Automatic annotation (TrEMBL):
Biased composition (Low complexity): 1-39
Cofactor requirement: a divalent metal cation
GO cellular component: cytoplasm
InterPro entries per UniProt: ITPase-like_fam (IPR029001), Maf-like (IPR003697)
Organism listed in the record: Methyloceanibacter caenitepidi
Active-site positions on this chain: D133 (proton acceptor)
Pfam families: Maf
Protein name according to UniProt: dTTP/UTP pyrophosphatase
Molecular function per GO: dTTP diphosphatase activity; UTP diphosphatase activity
Organism placement in taxonomy: Bacteria, Pseudomonadati, Pseudomonadota, Alphaproteobacteria, Hyphomicrobiales
Length: 266
């Protein structure tokens, strides 16, 4: 038996004339020759485009109202409806109904009527649908929309120098058929407007079709000395609650704001 000590293999190899094989150096990768006069331009970052109404980028949004004020408020919040589907419902008040019950019932009725319309339109069948109703109340007395000048005059004389409440119910139907609802209350106080001011306001025609016979976003804003709650609720659509309901059900509100900001900055 042959015993080998540490290092004996090296000595033995040298005596026998054996050489240790060394690994071949790695070949360097060929470097592409630079072409004189040509510089590679850096890639430009792509900008996300804002979704257009009716595009497949987001779910469709339908406003069940013919009110220009509600449309303007939604657009103010960066949300442009894909369609308007106003519906005609009986807005008469039942005996014993309180303001909250009235607006809830009417907003739901408007949503149901609009939903029947969009179900016959394939492009709108899976949409977010918004309906709303607003009333003004002095105690338990409910003031609906003024259609005649004498109605508006009686309402303004009742409201002057005292506080009243404005109620709006917002009903939302999701593409999956879920129903959501919010009722918002705002307290408003008028100063003691004169008969001459009432007459001049009636001549403006601004009161026509407005709950309580006035439009706070117009001349009647000069009548208000105190407001507690949502201003947009008095106009006709409480934006905070409406936007929160949409975002809570997956409508891409913040993404639309971001896209709009990118377009504005372009």
């Amino acid at each position: 038996m042959i015993s080998l000590k540490v290092g004996s293999l090296t000595g033995l190899s040298s005596k026998l004339g054996l050489k240790r094989s060394t690994p071949a150096p790695a070949e360097a990768e060929p470097v592409a020759a630079a072409v004189p006069g040509k510089v590679k331009a850096p890639k430009r970052p792509t900008r996300r485009r804002a979704p257009k109404p009716g595009s497949s980028f987001r779910p469709k949004l339908v406003l069940a109202s013919a009110s220009p004020r509600r449309l303007q408020l939604l657009e103010q919040a960066g949300l442009t409806p894909d369609a308007l589907r106003p519906s005609s419902v009986d807005e008469s008040v039942s005996k014993g109904e309180v303001p909250r019950q009235i607006v809830r019932r009417l907003a739901k009725a408007k949503a149901e009527a609009a939903l029947k319309l969009v179900k016959n339109e394939p492009e709108l069948a899976k949409c977010f649908l918004i309906a709303a109703d607003t009333v003004v109340a002095v105690g338990r007395r409910v003031l609906g929309k003024a259609e005649l000048e004498n109605e508006a005059a009686d309402m303004l004389r009742l409201l002057r120098g005292r506080a009243h409440r404005v109620y709006t119910a917002v009903t939302m139907v999701t593409p999956e058929g879920r129903w959501r609802e919010r009722v918002v209350e705002t307290r408003v106080r008028f100063r003691n407007i004169t008969d001459q001011e009432i007459g001049a306001y009636l001549a403006s025609g601004e009161w026509r079709g407005k709950a309580g016979g006035y439009a706070i976003q117009g001349i009647a804003g000069a009548f208000v000395i105190k407001l507690v709650g949502s201003y947009t609720n008095v106009v006709g659509l409480p934006l905070t609650e409406t936007v929160s309901m949409l975002a809570g059900e997956g409508y891409p509100v913040a993404l639309l704001w971001l896209a709009k900001a990118e377009v504005d900055a372009a």
